[in-house]
Every structure is written in C-alpha cells, then in structure tokens.
Automatic annotation (TrEMBL):
Name of the featured protein: DNA-binding response regulator
GO biological process annotation, one example: phosphorelay signal transduction system
GO MF annotation: an example: DNA binding
Source organism per UniProt: Streptomyces shenzhenensis
Top-level taxonomy: Bacteria, Bacillati, Actinomycetota, Actinomycetes, Kitasatosporales
InterPro entries registered for this protein in UniProt: CheY-like_superfamily (IPR011006), NreC/VraR/RcsB-like_REC (IPR058245), Sig_transdc_resp-reg_C-effctor (IPR016032), Sig_transdc_resp-reg_receiver (IPR001789), Tscrpt_reg_LuxR_C (IPR000792), WalR-like (IPR039420)
Length: 219
C-alpha cells in the first residue's frame, strides 16, 4: 500500500542504471517514494494511467515517445500531475520546449543528487524549479523579446491607462484626473472601465491593489 503522506513518483528513463541511481536519491527521502518506473515515454503514459502518481520525473530523450512528447500527453490527460524533466542536456531549446509542453521544472542529471529532491518538493508546491543556467536563459530570452519590440505581459496597459490607474490608486477623483491629464471626465471614465475589463477587476479597491503590485504606487 502506498503511503498517503509521501509524494508518489513515476520515474521514466530508458537506462536502467540511471533509473536505479535516481531511485536511490529519491527513496532515501522520507517524503518521496518511487511507485512506478518506465523505460520510455509511451510506457510512462501507461504507468501514469495505472498508478496513483503525484509527480512524473521524465528523461527528455527516450525511445518510442520522448519525454517532451510524453509531457504533452500527460499534461492533457492529467492536468493535476506535476512533471519534471531530467536531462543530460544543458540546452536552452530543450528547456523552453519542456516549459511549453507543461513541465514545471528542469533538472540536469549531472547534478541530480544535489537538485532533484528540491525540484520534486518545489513542483508539489506549484513552484517552478530552474537550474542556474536556465535562469540565465530565461533572462536572455526576455531581453531579446524586449529588444525586438515583442509585447511582454506587463505591457497589457497603454501608457495612458497606466497614468489613469496610478491616479485612481492615489485616490484622485475622475474630475481631478481629467484636469491633471488634460482630458475630459468622460474619457477618464472610459479608461477606468477599460482598466477594469482588461484586468478582470471589480472596483477601485481592486485597481489600487493591482497598482501596488505593479509598483505604480507605494503600499
């Protein structure tokens, strides 16, 4: 009988020796337990279906179905399952593909004894686990997108909407905002309505909280 207090793990790698080594790392932790093993991506999907598992640790390069393909399948089949990629490749392309496929972490085999346990626990807390090289890759990718003028998530508001949001959060009335920005009260109200709709918020209090989180006003 699986222990309900433990994180139940499916481990998939086409090298039995690697599986044995990884299993040793995981099973010596009191809160982790490998309950199923697979030798390729297709078998990993079968095992995930036939066993109660909380977390899948998948090698990226496997026969029949790769870890990336299996991740896509599993993310669709079992949205609650957390997935970690285990790989020999310190490779940005693989890393971004893994995140896109639905993995919540990326662990290098070369440092699995150091990182894997922390990555498993982070995954169960719904926190992404990134090795240091991946953090650098993410920052570089973000800066590239900014440099090429691609829209980033924080550019959801126009500069004018941001100005209105800041003033609303500071407690200004529509009349005061209109005077400060040299626009009509009607235009201010339209901007406010757009802000609420765009951000999925209800009222002035929600807008103020959002402005604080966005760093537009001091808490």
């Amino acid at each position: 009988m699986p222990d309900p207090t433990k994180i139940r793990i499916l481990l998939a790698d086409d090298h039995a020796l690697v599986r044995r080594g990884v299993r040793l790392i995981l099973d010596r932790e009191p809160d982790l337990e490998v309950v199923a093993e697979a030798g390729d991506g297709a078998e990993a999907i079968e095992m995930a279906r036939s066993h109660e598992v909380d977390l899948a640790v998948l090698d990226i390069a496997m026969p029949r179905l790769t870890g990336l393909q299996a991740t896509r399948e599993l993310a669709g089949l079992m949205p609650g399952l957390r997935i970690l990629m285990l790989t020999m490749h310190d490779n940005e392309q693989y890393f971004f593909q893994a995140l896109k496929a639905g993995a919540c972490g990326y662990v290098l085999k070369s440092v699995a004894d150091r990182d894997l346990v922390a990555a498993c626990r982070a995954a169960m807390r719904d926190e992404p686990f990134l090795y240091p090289g991946a953090v650098t890759a993410l920052i570089r990718n973000y800066l590239d997108r900014v440099r090429h003028g691609e829209e980033t998530p924080d550019q959801i508001l126009t500069p004018r909407e941001e100005e209105v949001l800041k003033l609303v959060a500071e407690g200004r009335s529509s009349k005061e905002i209109a005077e400060l920005l040299f626009i009509s009260v009607k235009t201010v109200q339209r901007h406010r309505a757009n802000l609420l709709q765009k951000l999925g918020l209800r009222d002035r209090l929600d807008l103020t909280r959002y402005a604080i989180r966005a760093g537009l006003v001091e808490p």
